Amino acid sequence: MTSVSGSNKTLGCGKMLKYQIGIWFSRIQSNIRNLSYSYELWYSSLKEIEGNFGSGVSSYFKFLRRLFILNLLMTVLGLSFIVAPQVIFSVNTAGENVTVVNNNVNFSAEDLFTGAGYLTNTLMYYGFYTTGRINGVYSMPDAYFYTMVCIFIGNAVIIGVNMAKSYRKSFIETMGGLQNVFAHKIFCGWDYSIAKEQASSLKSNAIYTELKELLSDRLKMRVKRNFIQKFIIRTLQLAGHLFVFALVGAIGYLMWILLERHRVDDEDKDISSTVPILTAVIINVIVLVFPLIFRLIGSYEGYKSPRVRVIVTFLRTLLLEIVIVGILTVFWLTHSENQACWENSLGQEIYRLILFDFFFSVIFLSLFEGARYLLHKKFKSIKAPEFDISGNTFSVIYNQTLFWLGFYYSPMLGVVIILKLFLTWYVRSWVLLGFCVPPNKSWRAAQTETLFLIITFLSSLLLLLVHGYTMLMIRTSETCGPFRYVEFMHQIFFNAIADMDGNNTALIILSFISKPGVIALILIGLTMLVYYLRSKSVAQRNFVMFLRRRLVLAAQDKEFLLRHISEVSNGGRLIVKG
Amino acid sequence: MLNISAIIAHQKFKALAPEKVGHNKNAKLPMNKMLQYPELAVNPFGERICKVFSSSRDGDCTFEDFLDMMSVFSEAAPKSVKAEHAFRIFDFDGDDMLGTADLKQVIDKLLGNNKLTEREMQHLIQNILEEADLDDDGSLSFAEFEHIIDKSSDFAKYA
């Protein structure tokens, strides 16, 4: 270890203060971190899952928890800046006829499933929110617009930061010459705070499963194939891809037809709830069944490692998700012109999908697994259910994408989603601990988690684009919602700028930043920064390689010398001879 | 602050063997008594920890040894101190190097009742050495060990 530097100079007052503050600050930081560890949500059940099922399964639950917290944050913001003011407004102006659509429909239980009927004209959906100002100060359209924009951008930033962190940890830091996965597992694997016999054996089991996973991963990479086998497998894989694309295309077409029919139905008869529910059910059945089909296809394509197969299946399922959400969005956006309040319709559609997704992918699947477990107890030939990590994670990501799409049109959807994720956690962990056996597939938990995060981030970016497009290009409904007096949603922002007078500092800053020269300068600066960092990292990597080689050489020198010394001390002749 | 935590530590120490410590403040507790401390009882390296911290090197600990142990395992202890002690805990044969035999023992203890096959064990040790043994001499020196530990955030957190 390095010795303390020899200078005897005492520290100056300023430096002393600086260090003091630094120490103080890092102490606070570590205290907060400790506190957050001890109050971690669902910590104990997560540990139990980790100990029993390995880090792969727990990565699903960690992901679920991450989304739960994120959604909680979004919902709280939405509730406090959009819903609560609207409630105050409604109470203040009670008696005046603020809403255009009549609210004489009585509540019925059916409405909970369709999301329509009585619910149409409540706080649930975009259409209910007003254009007014509360006490002449708090403008609802502004609040709605800026809150949503901030939530969505903040959301993408949070996920982006998380993704970058996790990417750095699981990919970059283990890259290059040093890959201390195993050493890390062995030396830092034990949790020294464990004080219970049961927890201890769980931890042992977890380390055991993880080491097994890692080892089988390493061993399987060594299998080689010859040319003809390779060719056959490539062809099979190509056919598989084409088949999947055709399937997904067909599903997209089917969905479009379904949506058309139910809209036509809407216009013919006033309230018919069967068709919308049927649409939601069909879409959910597709979402439930097709990943299984994709998995079946994947198992015939002969991928080398199970991880690649899982990832391919996962990406295909993701394609399905994108097509479904995409068709839904495109349908409602293209039909926005001749719809009374298309924002509400889209919100309701999503509400139904999220609700039925709960019935299918949580309740139904759990019942299925429970039944399979009972059958397994009776007849040993039936295998006990295995927890399908990629399938379950897909369903959570799909659900999250739907939520991001729907949240803009239904600020109360957050409450629904939080309830749903909350129940999902308990139902799934209960089913897992009660009925499932640990998966025998190899899972690199950290990398899988990163993959999930990357996909979530991409889908949040995609939705940012969708919402941006909607704000810029799609006409708002004229009869409902906070934006009914503007033609496009973005006008809330640009009208506010246009209303500023020329001497306003914000306006001056804005117009300065939006000058082409400034933008070009910023872009060039960013590019240079990226280039600089990139070349720095390459140089550092080379240097590490160089140092490593030198270490090996030094060790060889040492060994050589030691050998000579022992030779000399055993039979002293050697030197005399020379 | 320090006094209070020392008093708490002494209470814990006393709780392990009230009759002994009650009579003699400088009593030495045998290892089997020490291993009744909950965190040590379930720790696969419990015995090693006692031996490393015991001033007589046989696992029997005085209160001062116990206090040393608590301060090294506390969250406030610096990483380098922890690394040094961890190295001594893992170094079963005491030759200041983590050789293949040491690694094998560490892994065995860590896995508890689960056993790896001979082939897996060899493969695992080979992988660890490939990763951590920078100078290719077949065992890990303290510097190499510290290098591995340094990259880990978990180590500072848990150990």
Question: Could you give a quick summary of the protein structure above?
Answer:
The complex is a heterodimer of chains A (578) and B (159). With 578 residues, chain A is mainly alpha-helical.
Plain-language structure description:
The complex is a heterodimer of chains A (578) and B (159). With 578 residues, chain A is mostly helical. Chain A folds into two domains: 43-499, no CATH class; 509-553. Chain A has 17 helices and two strands. Chain A has helices at 13-38, 43-92, 109-114, 140-172, 181-188, 197-220, 227-268, 274-299, 306-334, 342-378, 389-407, 413-435, 445-473, 491-499, 505-513, 516-570, 573-577; strands spanning 133-134, 138-139. Chain A has a two-stranded antiparallel ribbon. In chain A, a hairpin with a 3-residue loop joins strand 1 and strand 2. Chain A is globular. The two termini of chain A are 40 Å apart. Residues 1-7 and 97-102 of chain A have low confidence and may be disordered. Chain B has 159 residues and is mainly α. Chain B folds into two domains: 4-72, EF-hand (Recoverin, domain 1), CATH 1.10.238; 80-158, EF-hand (Recoverin, domain 1, Orthogonal Bundle). Chain B is elongated. The two termini of chain B are 22 Å apart. The model of chain B has no long low-confidence stretch (mean pLDDT 80).
